[in-house]
Structure formats: C-alpha cells, structure tokens
Amino acid sequence: KKMSCSKKEKYTGALIGAAIGDALGWPNEQNSKNIRKNRNSIRTYVEWNRRAGGKYWPHEEKICAGEYSDDTQLIIATARSLLRGRQWSNFFRQAELPAWLKYERGGGGATKRAAQKWANNISPWDEKSNSPLEIKDYFMAGGNGVAMRILPHIFRNEENAEKIMEQVVLNGMYTHGHPRALIGAMLYAMAVRTLIQQDVVLSYGELIDVLIEEKQWSKLPEVNNIAIWKSEAERYAQYDYDRMWNECVIETINYLKIAKEALNQGILDLRDDTLQKLGCYNSKINGAGNVSAVVSIYLFSKYADDPTMAIYETANLSNADTDTLASMVGGLAGALNGKDWIPIELRGVQDYSLFEYLVEQMMDEKCDFLNSDKKYKLFNNEKMATLKIGESIECLPFGEITLKEIREDKPKRADMYVKVYIWKTAYGQTIFSRKIGKKALNLEQSVQYEVNEKHSSEILFTVQNLRDIKQILIKVSDANDFVEILCEIMKMKEENRISKEQIDGMKSKWRQYKMTKKQIVNIYELL
C-alpha cells in the first residue's frame, strides 16, 4: 500500500525516533553506570541515577525521565554542522566536537579522546603530536560512535548516495579510524536512505535484500589524502587498511545473511538466538559499528509493522548497547513512517520540538541562530558558571544560550560539590554542564592532605603555596585537571622519590598543557 509521508515528516520522524530510542535505552545500556538497573520491561521514560566523576570526583548524576545521551547530542551536532554548508566538516571538528566535551552525557571513549585532540588543534592521527600508542588506539577504534550520529547527512544529500557516503566517512574519520566503524555507519546510512525513498510499505525483510545487493555502502570513498591516512594505519596499527576493509565488508555481509535467514523463518525465528549469532550480547564486539548497524536493521525489520514495539524490544535487551541500538532502530522507524506512529507517552522526550526546527533549517539551507558576521567564543563551563539564572550568553556552536536552572548532584565525598547548570538554546535544545570542585576552605586554615599509608607523613601546604603552584601551572585552566596533577605530584612526595619515568609519564599524560620537568620538580620542592 502507498504511504502518505512527506520528506520533511520522514526526516523529522527519524530524528525524533532516534532521540526516543536513546532516552528509553540509556538506563539499560551495559555501560550506563546506572546505580539501579531496571530489569523489568521499560515501556516509558524513567528517572535514574548514574555513577559519574571517576575516582577523583565520584558522584551520582541524576538523569530525569526522557533525557537523551551522547547519541542524540552528536546527531544534533552533525545537523548543526551541516547548516554551515561547505564548511560543515571544519565546523564539526573545530567547534562541535570541542564544545561537546563540555556538555557530553555518557560519551564513548574513542569519541571523547578524539574530541580532546581536536580541542587542542591536533588530529588523532598526527604523528608529531600523538604517541604511537594513541595513534594505534585511534586506528583500532571500530565502535558505533559514528553510525549513531550520521542521520542528518542523508537528509542533505538524499538523491546522491555517493555524496552521503563521502560525508559519512569524513565525519567518522574525525573520531574513529577502523573500517568496522566506517562500514557500519555507511551501511546504516544506506538503510535510512532506502527507507526515506520508499513510498510503499516494505515487504518483510526486503530492506536486507536491498542492502545485500546495493554495495555502495561497502566502498571506501576517495576523500582527501586518504592514501596517506591509510598508510598511517599500516604503520601504527599494523594492518593493511584495504585488506582489513575487505575483510570487514565480508564479515558485515555474512551478518546481513544471518539476519535475512532469521527473518525468512518468520515466527520460528528465535530472536535471542539470532542476536547471539550477530554478536549482540558479546561485550567484546557488540559495540562495533558494523554489528550495531546489522542488529538495528534486523530488529527494525523483525518488528516492521509495529515500530513502537521495535524500539521497546531493543531498549529492553540485556547486556547490550541499548541506547545506541534503540536510537538506530528509532531512526529507521521514523525514516519509513514519519512521526505519526509515535505514541503520546513517548512524545515527552527531551527537546521534542527541536528536531522539526533543525529539519526546517536544513531543508531551507539556513542557520538562523548564528550570525556569520559575529565572532563567537566556544562554549566553556568555567566562564559560564558566573552567570545567574535567566541570564544569556552567545557562544559556539549554539548561538544564544540561557541559564534556566542550577541544581546539585549528590557527591560521594564530603569535601566536594557538583553543580549542574541547565541551559536552553534559543531554538530549544537543553544543555547540561557541570562544575565540580572542592568546597571552599577558610583562607586562614592550611590545607591538609591526608595519606592513609602507615609510614607516610602528612603533607601540609598553605594558601600561599597553592597560589605559587597555580602560578607554576598557569596553563592548566581546568580545575579538575589542576587537582589531579597536584595529587600525582603529592603521591611522589609521599613516596619521597621523583624519577625520570614519573616525570616523563606526567609530561605525556598532560601533553595538552606542555608541562616541563622544571615545573614538576618546582612543585615537588614546594610541597
């Protein structure tokens, strides 16, 4: 039967579907750090708390019902970049990724590491600025962090599959170097494009047939300097890029065939057996880009006549990457069905009305919220923490942003605080940024650093010492990093030894601040 869905409805439905899947699946995700996993079937948004802050700043982060994670944040970042026209890729790496570090929620390791490099104006594969191990890690990053964010590329170039693939790979290369990440993203992009162009209901499993035959997703586009980039992979990650690419394509086609065979069995298809074969429950591979793409295409196809059920089933998988998978299933559901299928109880997803606005801006090729004549500074927690509720500021990549609320998350240590700043952009995106630190001490007191080991002496230093140390570490603008560096040097002081290995380790770890041996030794002597 014919479908009566406009392109605009399909684009908007895909974005909203992705956000809904993300918000539903996040509390259940294998790495969500949810303090109390909801093992029952989730059929609605839930409020939950997650462990955050690592070992230095441990606290409970409150996530309200319907709030989405990094998957949706990065889809929005991609959409905003595309509003810059031909400059989209520069904007994505120079503004979107560095700013995202300041407001990310549940971000993946590979994306955060790469974003940190771009924030320091370094590419993750640059051999002058990265250690061999860092470059190897980048070229081994094959996760689904690319596939989950590329929806907007399809809307801008729907008629031109070649251009979609080029843009998807370019977007992906900024954070992930392994073929699995890029192939998964291209396969997912091709699936979404197929559904958007579909004006009749698909027969059961037809999407997978199309993807097995349509090999456009399996060819690495010739983006600029790709040959040099591939040779870096060979040098540092020690694999032949083209051979690895072909192996991953074959692996992906085999996954598609497993999914196709399962769908052919109809009601005899035991979903969990199929997901097992696809690696969905194997924590070593279930976050891979190509695995996630095939799993999401399979689950969407299995429940094609009931998109809401497709998202619920995906969000409730055990021991799986549920936020990304449910987000990708939601994107497919919306690409085919628009947004009318979305039940009223799921329309309470964070920033529901934002997605239609972004689609309108993309279709009209406008960017109403940024003035091209203005010089904006990048979004930065430190400066913005001085604002009062109701005050606004202009910054990249958001344009005008207003502070709506300040709340406190629950710290796990008595001497620290966690403030959450909740912002709203002029066009309706909610941004959460955090300020974490030690509670203020009376200036008359000296600060005492207690050590639990038996024979270690207590380290005492005055406020003047702290000022002197801050002067030495003048380039360290982030309060968390300052405290962490100080703790590392204190540990050396406790052990009463400072070695070349320790100094070299610190210089490498804090490379972005260009610390010198002299600085480290001076602080050691001050303590």
Terminal-residue CA separation = 77 Å
Strand content: 5-15%
Estimate the helix proportion, in percent: 40-55%
| Overall average residue pLDDT | 90
Shape: globular
Radius of gyration: 24 Å
Outline:
The protein is of the alpha+beta class.
How does this structure look, described?
The protein is an alpha+beta fold and 527 residues long. It is built from 21 helices and ten strands. The strands form three sheets. A five-stranded mixed beta sheet has the order 3-4-5-7-8. A three-stranded antiparallel beta sheet has the order 1-2-6, with no helix packed on it. A two-stranded antiparallel sheet has the order 9-10. The longest helix is centred in the middle third of the chain and has 24 residues, at 241-264. Mean pLDDT is 90; it is low at 443-457.
Question: What is the topology?
Answer:
Blueprint: H1 7-25, E1 48-52, E2 59-63, H2 70-82, H3 88-100, H4 109-119, H5 132-139, H6 151-156, H7 161-173, H8 179-196, H9 206-213, H10 226-236, H11 241-264, H12 271-277, H13 289-302, H14 307-315, H15 322-337, H16 354-364, E3 377-378, H17 381-384, E4 392-396, E5 399-408, E6 410-411, E7 416-425, E8 430-438, E9 447-449, E10 459-461, H18 463-472, H19 479-495, H20 500-509, H21 517-526
Parallel strand pairs: 3-4
Antiparallel strand pairs: 1-2, 2-6, 4-5, 5-7, 7-8, 9-10
